[in-house]
Amino acid sequence: MSKRGDVNNDNKLGTYDVTYILSYLDALSGYTLDSDGLQRADVNNDNNVTQDDANYLLSHIAEVSGFETIDTIAEPVAE
């Protein structure tokens, strides 16, 4: 199961994930996101990947008040 914020999918939330989001937003070579990656990068769960997601994740990592929680990614329901 993927975690929102775990952009590089290593089961940890860290500054590398923040760097990856910012590099993706700057369209740097090698920093692409598939549909699952886009979900993980949408840290604030507003259906957009922006600098706000990087800021939220960095604030969460730094344990800033008001950024304690990150929503989970809902698993698809089997039909």
Please supply descriptive tags for the structure shown above.
3 helices; 79 residues; 0% strand; mainly alpha
What does this structure look like?
This protein has 79 residues and is mainly alpha-helical. 37% of the residues lie in helices and 0% in strands. The chain contains three helices and no strands. It has helices spanning 15-25, 35-41, 51-61. It starts with 14 loop residues before the first helix and ends in an 18-residue tail after the last helix. The model has no long low-confidence stretch (mean pLDDT 93).
Low-confidence stretches: none
pLDDT averaged residue by residue? 93
Number of strands: 0
- Percent helix, as a range, is 25-40%
Compose a concise summary of this entry.
With 79 residues, this protein is mainly alpha-helical. The chain has three helices and no strands. The radius of gyration is 12 Å and the shape is globular.
List the helices and strands and how they pair.
Blueprint: H1 15-25, H2 35-41, H3 51-61
